[in-house]
Amino acid sequence: MKIIAEYLWIDGNEPTRQLRSKTKVVDLDRDPLDAIGVEDFPEWGFDGSSTGQAPGGDSDRKLMPVVVVPDPVRNEGDSFLVLCEVYYPDGRPHETNARAKLRAILDGGADKAEAWVGIEQEYTLFKGSAPLGFGSERRFPAPQGPYYCGVGADEVYGREIVEDHLRACLEAGLNICGVNAEVMPGQWEFQVGGPDSDPLTTGDHLWIARWLLYRIGEEYGISATLDPKPVTGDWNGAGAHTNFSTAEMRADGGLEVIKAACDKIGTRIEEHLAVYGDGYQMRLTGRHETCRYDEFKWGVGDRTASIRIPAHVGTDGKGYLEDRRPCANACPYEISRVLLETILG
Question: Smaller CB count within 10 Å for the chain: N or C?
Answer without folding.
Answer: C
